[in-house]
Fold this sequence. Notes:
Elements: E1 4-10, E2 13-21, E3 26-28, E4 36-43, E5 46-49, E6 54-57, E7 61-65, E8 71-73, E9 85-92, H1 94-101, E10 116-120, H2 123-137, H3 144-161, H4 167-174, H5 182-188, H6 196-202, H7 207-218, H8 222-238, H9 245-251, H10 257-268, H11 272-277
Amino acid sequence: xxxxxxxxxxxxxxxxxxxxxxxxxxxxxxxxxxxxxxxxxxxxxxxxxxxxxxxxxxxxxxxxxxxxxxxxxxxxxxxxxxxxxxxxxxxxxxxxxxxxxxxxxxxxxxxxxxxxxxxxxxxxxxxxxxxxxxxxxxxxxxxxxxxxxxxxxxxxxxxxxxxxxxxxxxxxxxxxxxxxxxxxxxxxxxxxxxxxxxxxxxxxxxxxxxxxxxxxxxxxxxxxxxxxxxxxxxxxxxxxxxxxxxxxxxxxxxxxxxxxxxxxxxxxxxxxxxxxxx
Length: 278
């Protein structure tokens, strides 16, 4: 299955899109501006790895996110089906919505601090997804007035589904500053198979800044600390014989059994199988 993407634009900016793709390991969410977004799963399953959350998504759930760094991921469980993934995305730009809905976001007081949230797809949202899919597949039907109407409809649906008083309050919460805690982000992603630059991205930092901050907070380099924590967790799991060593290696975030064995031996002086026997 090949990548295939279709988009609808409004005043030069992508607002609705549909993308079909084969399964992948990890894909970063790329931003063009400070837009928020909502993603429907039209086919298949995937997960979202955010700084402090890990969310599984399927056709019954979507994700609403601020402009923060996160990754889409798939794993072996997701890939049982061979049809790949298809997503429908809605991009929300603060300046565009201020103009369409005629209000000033800077005058709103945000009360709810959320960065990313799983949303159950109810019948109203399912019907909305079908309507924008129709427009994406038939762009000749989508003039500016129709797109404006669909953006207004989406904001109203989200406002009601989140039980928020009015649209300005919902958008104020959606575009409020992101709230990322360094230690919580490291802890949440400690056992994921992430490179240092990927963890740094989740912390909204450059790799060099992340390394300096990590050393200051944990008094150890990130490479040594993360490897040690993974091996310590693996040692606990090895005490139970119900887990295969290869599964433990994957569960604590190593990309191969060979790498796991080498790191384990460096810390404990014996292989995982020898440790289990002892």
